[in-house]
From TrEMBL:
Keywords: Aminotransferase, Transferase. This is Aminotransferase. It comes from Aspergillus cavernicola. The keyword Transferase applies. Gene3D superfamilies: 3.30.470.10, D-amino Acid Aminotransferase, subunit A, domain 2. One of its GO terms (molecular function) is transaminase activity. It comes from the Eukaryota.
Length: 262
């Protein structure tokens, strides 16, 4: 794919109530990615920088290397109402031009964004399917770009027609390893006994081909999970799985392996 035909992207949540929830819960992370209405913004800026380096986009890197406070001021100009939550999609091209798409965000229990995660038992779990075709790992799976055709095709094969659907599909590499979700990072309970010093949850390593996600980085930094390969053969129909991304936080789900997806 030509470098002229795609942009690098990152999607995150703006929520004015987030810093207060962080303060009340005493949540912590390093560097401090939570002390801002922009969820994990330092991680998003890092993610975009790393993508610009990977694709050798010097002008984009110059824009992204601006001071963090300056970057916040830039994003602030795109927030229509700072008293409401928003979904932001940052789109940066090779010339360093940044477009920020802003849309209203649904209200979510903000504790779902923090470690330790509090997910209400009353919440309806997402259905999590497994793609029926393989995805070839590439720079466009490691780094988030507008080249999303493979993700769109995986969602279509799983029968997921809208971003509002409470459903996800897991991408699989040619070795049968879980890479990531189409819009989330997945977490699975360990298959073998873990000692008390090991996390209970695992997430696929980047070597399996998935995205360097921001909520994934947060979960690893907080010691919630460890990296470990997991294959389709390891999955169990109906098992509990967690998902996360920079807009919705952490989500409860169940693996669906049976053919009936209604």
């Amino acid at each position: 794919m030509s470098s002229q035909s795609f942009q690098i992207i990152s999607t995150l949540r703006y929520d004015p109530a987030l810093p207060n929830v962080v303060s009340q819960r005493g949540a912590d992370a390093s560097p401090d990615p939570l002390n801002t209405p922009y969820y994990l913004l330092p991680y998003h800026q890092d993610r975009l920088r790393n993508a610009a380096r990977y694709f050798n986009w010097g002008n984009a890197l110059k824009f992204l290397d601006q001071d963090y406070a300056q970057f916040v001021r830039y994003l602030d100009t795109f927030i229509p109402d700072k008293g409401k939550p928003w979904r932001l999609r940052l789109v940066v091209d090779r010339n360093g031009d940044c477009k920020v798409e802003t849309n209203p965000a649904a209200r979510i229990e903000l504790e779902n964004f923090l470690f330790p995660f509090i997910i209400s038992p009353a919440s309806t779990p997402w259905r999590i399917f497994v793609d029926s075709a393989y995805t070839i790992p590439s720079g466009h799976t490691t780094h988030k770009t507008t080249a999303r055709e493979g993700y769109t095709a995986a969602r279509a094969r799983a029968g997921i027609v809208s971003l509002q659907d409470t459903a996800e599909v897991l991408l699989v590499n040619p070795n049968g390893e879980i890479m990531e979700g189409s819009i989330t990072t997945p977490y699975f309970r360990r298959r073998e006994e873990a000692d008390q010093n090991e996390p209970e949850w695992i997430t696929p390593p980047l070597s399996s081909g998935g995205n360097v996600g921001t909520s994934r980085r947060y979960a690893l930094a907080q010691g919630f999970c460890a990296e470990q390969k997991i294959t389709v053969k390891d999955l169990i129909d109906g098992e509990v799985c967690l998902l996360s991304n920079g807009v919705r936080g952490f989500i409860l789900g169940n693996i669906v392996l049976k053919a009936d997806r209604a």
